[in-house]
Amino acid sequence: MNLVFKILVLITFILNPEYSPAQKIEHKKIIGQIATVKVKEGEIKFTGRVDTGAKTTSINAKKIMQKGDSVKFTIVNKQGQKFSMITKIADERYVFNAEKREKRYYVYLTLEYNGITKRALVNLNDRSKSTYKILLGRNWLNGDYIVDVSIDRL
Question: Is residue 86 part of a domain?
């Protein structure tokens, strides 16, 4: 452990005696760079990239159409399996990339990995040209996983 980290842990412990790094870590599962998750709403498996640089999880979605305060869309995995659904829009934001400014819808989906089922905010995005059809962001990882980048697959 480097010295700066040890000092930060010591300061944290002094300011908050109930804090214990070991307790916070011991219940967490280790996950690698790549993980296969099941989207419970459609019972479809996605092999995804674990991305600690992404704040929010993103999934490959097609035929995205807003209907009032809900959105209708179809999720598609790498094998071409599809599931269509309508769900309430949790948020919508504009995203800027090199090509254009686009509106993205955010919905809650239930993702399962190695026996842990979590409901997470997911943005709907056409990821058809991407290698991984789901990007697992920090909002999904938070509280349950430690990322070990030396592990290619689990």
Answer: yes
